[in-house]
Design goal:
Blueprint (H helix, E strand, L loop, with lengths): L1 E7 L2 E7 L1 H6 L9 E3 H16 L2 H14 L2 H31 L4 H16 L1
Antiparallel strand pairs: 1-2, 2-3
């Protein structure tokens, strides 16, 4: 799905449609439907304005953010992350030791080690 521009008189008008169909026709995609961007954009904005931007929803989002930002919640989350990092570092140390002294195939251990390191770094 993408934007397709067409000339209507002296104006260029945008449409949403399948870019594969527009570039390669039905040999790649049979979806030849195109709809004016203006129509879709109005429908999307009306839905967002009517369903998402209600005061109750906005208030609930703000309350959730405020709750998440409370020092106690942040401290708890930080402590959890520190425990996870410490656990991952222990696993990394054990795997490094296993690589150095094991008969297990090294690629398997290296893959597991790299997985733990990526988790730790995230």
């Amino acid at each position: 799905m993408g934007v397709i521009k067409r000339t209507h008189g002296r104006h260029r008008v945008g449409f949403y449609g399948c870019l594969a169909f527009q570039k390669r026709a039905a040999t790649v995609c049979a979806n030849n439907l195109v709809i004016r961007m203006e129509s879709i954009d109005k429908a999307v904005l009306a839905t967002i304005g009517g369903d998402v931007l209600k005061p109750k929803i906005i208030d609930a989002v703000i309350a959730g953010v405020k709750d998440a930002m409370k020092p106690a919640n942040i401290t708890r989350e930080n402590a959890t992350r520190k425990r996870e990092i410490a656990s991952l570092e222990q696993e990394i140390d054990r795997m490094t030791e296993a690589i150095a002294s094991s008969s297990t195939p090294v690629p398997t251990l290296l893959e597991a080690l790299q997985t733990r390191q990526r988790r730790r770094d995230d």
